[in-house]
Amino acid sequence: MPNGKWGIMHLALRTWPTSRLILTAVGLCLILRVPAAFLVYGTSDVTNIFALPGALFNGELLHFYSRLPSNYSPFIPWLLWPFRFLSGAAGLPFWGMIKVPSIISDCVITAIIFSAVLRLKSDRVSAFKAALLYAANPVSFFVTSVHGQLDPMVIMFCLAAWYYFEFAQDARDKTFSALFLGAAIAAKNYPIILLPFFLFREKTLKDRFHYLALSLLPITAFSLPYFLAAPGLFLKSVLGYAPKFGYWGYMLVLTILKKHFSLSLFQWLYEQGNRFGKYLLLALLAVYYQCSRGRTRLIDDIIIAFLGLLTFTSGFGSQYLIWPVPFALVTRAQRPERIYAAYAAFCTLWMGCLYMGLYSPALYSRCTALIGENLFWKFSTLFSLSAWLATGSWLALKIKNGVGNLRRDAAGI
Fold first, then answer.
1. Are β-strands 315-316 and 244-245 bridged in parallel, bridged antiparallel, or unpaired?
2. Which of 8, 66, 237, 344 is the most buried (most CB within 10 A)?
3. Within 13 Å of residue 386, how many CA atoms lie on the same side as its CB?
4. So where are the chain's domains?
5. What's the rounded Cα separation, in Å, for the pair 41 and 388?
6. 265-271: long-range contacts at Cβ-Cβ below 8 A with a sequence spacing of 24 or more?
7. Do 13 and 128 form a contact (C-beta atoms < 8 A)?
8. pLDDT per residue over 59-71, tens digit each?
9. 132 or 16, which is more confident?
10. Rounded to whole angstroms, how far apart are CA atoms 305 and 57?
11. What are phi and psi of 245, to 5 degrees?
12. pLDDT for the residue 5
């Protein structure tokens, strides 16, 4: 029998009904995110998103991209327009309401994690712990309430797509899975890298075509009018997304090297990474598609794809760091994710430095006055490199474990 305070708490939690456990985790998620969302304005992304719903109905709808060149798909301004209306009705700033879809998404992710772990492990306390780890997750908090990006909503759709596919009882569940993945692709185009993993697991060509068609339906429905009105502008805007370079990953390493060593080689490598890094990433993804082909667990393929993007991307947005987190918290219920804790810790430290000027200018001033601004940002760079190394190590371990499992299956062990 468990002893001590934790043992008593563990036993108490077992007496709680499932609904109470879910509501507690979701309530914590709300309590932690809502105040900060309306106290901290956020990054320049909030400013960019701010203009989208108004421009949607400013003049002719179909010429939206000619008036306001944007990397966001048409799904985003349509999604945010009701929140603009609600901000006026409630008297709340729209820059805060912009974060509400991500807050709602985090709450839904918390509930899905609970449900998934419960179905995988049949243990309500384990499910509750996993849900709490997301509800109180600093990486999720920073992306949603401080940064102000919409990636939590995209990841919510991806997680729902996995959930309905993993626990599918009939064809209707597969339909929901395809539509959720389609919604993720419609919101931001990067989840399309997950589509092959779902298609590999469909047994017949007809099933694959059906899943493919449904997953492309949302983006087609939202994008077709704009594409037909101005195809060149639309493709240039939506597909021409250019993330920032030089503060994450191997591009950060090259930035440091070219700053401290006057070798033209480092400058050349940096320029090549800037120009061809995305093609390297696509090539590595293609290799993994060929090696995987649905023979590993779907959730492992998803985690590996996201970790691969984070490890080998040349351009970067700090909101990317949330991508593998919900899936890792689900899969930890079955087998350990040994490097996830290091990943989460270093990401938290880096984001704490990166966003300090946003969430607490006074604390930023004290820190920089105490140790100097130059040293403060050196610590930030160290945390960024540590987070990237943890990401790469996590990816290597996931691939190694996946290859080992495939060999054991081939040997009939």
1. antiparallel
2. 344
3. 18
4. 244-316+336-413
5. 27
6. 270/246
7. yes
8. 545 566 665 556 7
9. 132
10. 37
11. -115, 150
12. 61
